[in-house]
Amino acid sequence: MERLFRPKGVAVVGASTNPAKIGYRVVENIVSGGYPGAIYPINPKGGEILGLPTFPSVEAVEGEIDLAIVSVPAPGVLPTVEACGRKGIGHLVVLTSGFSEVGEIDAERRIVEAARAHGTRILGPNVFGLYSAVSSLDATFGPGGIVPGRIAIVTQSGALGIAMIGKTASEGLGLSALVSVGNKSDVDESDLLEFLVDDERTGVILLYIEGVKGGERLVRTLSDVTGRKPVVVIKSGRSKRGAMAAASHTGSLAGADAVFDDLMRQCGVLRAESVQEAFDWVRYLASAPQPAGSEAVIVTNGGGIGVLATDACEKDGVRLYDDQGVLAGAFENVMPAFGSSKNPVDLTGQATVEDYENALDAVLDEDGMHAAIALYCETATADASQFERLIRGVFERYRERKPIIFSLFGGESIAEVIRTLRIEGVPVFGDVYEAVSPLGALYRSWRRSGKKDERPADVAIDVEAVRAILREAGSEGRGFLLAHEAARLAEILGLPMPASRIARGLDAAVDAAEEIGYPVVLKIVSKDIIHKSDAGGVAVDLNDEREVVDAYQAILRRCRAYKPDAVIEGIEVVEMVRPGIETIVGARRDSAFGPVVMFGLGGIYVEVMKDVAFRAAPVSLETANELVASIRSYPLLLGVRGEERKDTDRVAEVIVRLSHLAARCPEITDIEVNPLVVYDQGEGIRAVDVRILFEPPKGVTRR
Ligand code: ACO
């Protein structure tokens, strides 16, 4: 990646003297951007472009070329890639469209193979180019005028990326890098993240993703990067329709949004809802100092916006300083008689600009108060220009020491103050929620910083025994396990299923029931009777010997009447599962991210409540516990209204084992335990139903 961002020489293949063409525009941007290295326009027609002599081919260039921008029509790309490979060029940025995004998958594969044969990497195709501040290289066909700074943007959308050039410039956001990844045929986000995390100029990374490719690696890379630098992501395709549009747009399928959202959170990535929110975050993350602690103070001259800011803080995970004694002391000399020193600190509408400044100084000079949220409602007592000076002054004094954020609310003169201060780089907003949101992002990233991506330790699972069960089922042409096979697999996983015995005869059934303990369930066992309940082959809640005897005889009678020629192998005596909290645990192979594990509220509520969460598998016990705690219904597991806490430790253990099985047996596509009934702490869990789908061995078609 070093050669991509700091190339010694750059060629533009398809450079043109025609200013309307992309091949001209790229050369113009490279020249006007101030790239200090050698520039080689390649065009067989000869001539000069912007005073630079052209070369008929890359091979005709004597000097060293690290990077070639390819802007020739699609049929010319493969020969160009081959020529660049022969020349030993490290990186190609292929601007040309007309590959996998329009279904030309083979053509794209061929250019990647041709490049790999020479050890050349390809960015694209279907990209608008690359900007690298470290080498003053603007190799894009964008509008030019990129301002250097600390934000790196990696974008899958070309048009949005080009628009970002103008938008970042007008918002005063400086860029360390801007990379268009397009079809991601070779170089993808993970390759770029690995470079950017070590790039000293980059303070924060913004990703715009439409569809995930190489999701397993992306999760691992992001988990590592976010401990060292904040990463903000915008992903389109949140809605079902949006996902369909994204899929057809980029030629790669957008992963299910719920999985994406949960996995990004697991990796410590900050997911923004909109481009504007993402810009607000990255600008703040790139400029604000790290907080020394987690407690913020709100200073306001209006009670209402103080309450709104308190709500916004709760939403965005910003904690508020709460030592009432210290608060009272800190504001003793600056508080008007009828103000409130509780947090939010309310100076009331009568506060003068001096009162306001003194209060902010009191917060920002107090070591235990770690960040300030300064809110201001336009009043008759202070005019906007005085306030503008105050904000500028406070921000200058403390900008290196503590995170501060301002929100001003009022008419045209206040709007003007906001515009002026924003251009100067002061974090000032009109809306309270908009103001608190970047501070929330800063805190989330701060909590993540320094965290290492711990690979979960291996868990002992007899994978060979699992595979033997799958092989057996696969040999019968099945891609799913029958109940008894699933029960064997559950046993290997240490999943407690209801105790069960097959009885052949009445006495054996009674013995089995005594051994298991009442109440029990009886079920017919016959290959000829698939729908047991329809045949009257099931009896539940049998509490003593007499009920077992009656049920046994009734089941046989009903089943014989239902299907007289059925071969009856016996009657299964099963432990009757006591009621508890019904949860669901599952693991599956996600098309974008590979193995993922899921936990949620189970039983009949799954579909309605959709209260499930995902993590990339395998997971550690710590992550499994955190997954359990992440669902909305978690309070049910903690016990409500004096109930006992539930046995979540056992649930977490199951999650860990399932996640490791999914990671180690890629042939298992879906495994679902539903319901997994959870009892009070110490009383364990019961897996009532276990379903497994798998990819049968090659040559066997799934029935
Ligand atoms: N080697 C060197 N030069 C070549 C070669 C070659 N093999 N083949 C052609 N050329 C020259 C041409 O002669 C021409 O130069 P000229 O103007 O002196 O005649 C120049 O290269 C360009 O070739 P054209 O045939 O004129 O192609 P044009 O510039 O119209 O289009 C392009 C090429 C831009 C790559 C086009 O095929 C394309 O893919 N456009 C879409 C680009 C795009 O949008 N990418 C995604 C960006 S992201 C987004 O969504 C905005």
Q: Which secondary structure elements does this structure contain, and how are they paired or packed?
A:
Blueprint (H helix, E strand, L loop, with lengths): L1 H4 L3 E5 L8 H12 L4 E5 L5 E2 L2 E2 L13 E4 L6 H11 L3 E4 L10 H12 L4 E3 L5 E4 L4 E4 L7 E8 L2 H13 L4 E6 L8 H8 L7 E6 L5 H11 L5 E5 L4 H11 L6 H11 L2 E2 L3 H13 L7 E6 L2 H14 L2 E2 L3 H7 L14 E2 L6 H13 L5 E7 L6 H15 L5 E6 L2 H12 L4 E2 L2 H17 L14 H13 L7 H11 L6 E4 L2 H11 L3 E6 L12 E5 L2 H18 L7 E6 L5 E10 L3 E8 L4 H4 L2 E5 L4 H10 L3 H5 L9 H17 L3 E11 L6 E3 L2 E5 L9
Parallel strand pairs: 1-2, 1-5, 5-6, 6-7, 10-11, 10-12, 12-13, 13-14, 15-16, 15-17, 15-18, 18-19, 19-20
Antiparallel strand pairs: 3-4, 8-9, 8-11, 21-24, 22-23, 22-24, 25-26, 25-28, 26-27, 28-29, 28-30
Helix pairs in contact: 3-4, 6-7, 7-9, 10-16, 11-16, 13-14, 14-15, 17-18, 19-20, 22-24
The site of acetyl coenzyme *A (ACO) has 27 residues, from helix 2 and helix 5.
Short description:
The chain has a 7-stranded mixed beta sheet with strand order 9-8-11-10-12-13-14, sandwiched between helices. α13 (about 355-365) packs parallel to α14.
Poorly predicted spans: 248-255
User: How do the strands of the widest beta sheet line up side by side?
Assistant: 9-8-11-10-12-13-14
Distance from N terminus to C terminus (CA atoms, Å) equals: 47 Å
Average pLDDT figure: 91
